[in-house]
Write a structure and sequence with these properties.
Elements: E1 6-9, E2 12-14, E3 22-25, E4 28-30, E5 43-45, E6 48-50, E7 63-70, E8 88-92, E9 110-112, E10 130-132
Parallel strand pairs: 1-3, 2-4, 3-5, 4-6, 5-7, 6-7, 7-8, 8-9, 9-10
Length: about 190
């Protein structure tokens, strides 16, 4: 007998939760360890993940629609392999080092108090995204659409304005040096 996908609504999963392939709507996942797990083809709609470890989880054709991640460890996640239709999420106090958002359309995404070191945003559409107090050390921005994106409180980024679409993007005077890195100049004060 073939395993049919399940539908789960409004359930809270704690710590040692075992997920089966299916659709999860309005569910909460608290302190669950999904590191290195296969979450491919699962659908998460209006769900929240709080204090979870999702590092290196497989997300091939995974639906993430209006999903909130808080205090999660998410190293090396490949958001670029997720289902593209309706892809939408927000991140608060998450560790997203080495994550790939390559070619994703994630307009208006909010990244707050998060670490995104060496994350890949190449060719992504981040129109009106907010990077609030985020560490973007060695993050890749190449042919990225950053129009109206807000970087005013973020730091350690290096973005080449000639290689990205940046009309109306917002920066502060204290972090504007990240736009001039390719010129190898010293900026003081």
């Amino acid at each position: 007998m073939k395993n049919e996908p399940t539908y789960t609504h409004g359930k809270t999963f704690e710590k040692e939760a075992q997920l089966t392939k299916g659709e999860y709507e309005n569910c909460a996942f608290n302190h669950c360890d999904f590191s290195n797990k296969n979450l491919s083809d699962c659908q998460f709609i209006e769900c929240s993940f709080d204090g979870c470890n999702l590092s290196m989880a497989r997300l091939t054709s995974t639906t993430l629609r209006e999903v909130k991640f808080r205090n999660c460890k998410m190293l090396g996640l490949r958001f670029d392999t997720c289902e593209t239709f309706g892809l939408s999420f927000s991140f608060e106090a998450c560790q997203l080092d080495y994550a790939s958002f390559y070619k994703t359309n994630i307009k208006k995404t909010i990244f707050r108090n998060s670490q995104l070191q060496e994350a890949d945003f190449a060719e992504a559409d981040l129109t009106s995204a907010v990077f609030d107090n985020c560490d973007l050390a060695k993050a890749t921005f190449d042919q990225t659409k950053l129009e109206k994106a807000d970087f005013r409180t973020s730091y350690n980024f290096s973005i080449d304005p000639e290689m990205n679409r940046m009309k109306k993007a917002r920066f502060s005077s204290s972090n504007i040096a990240g736009l001039l890195d390719k010129y190898d100049i010293d900026i003081e004060g």
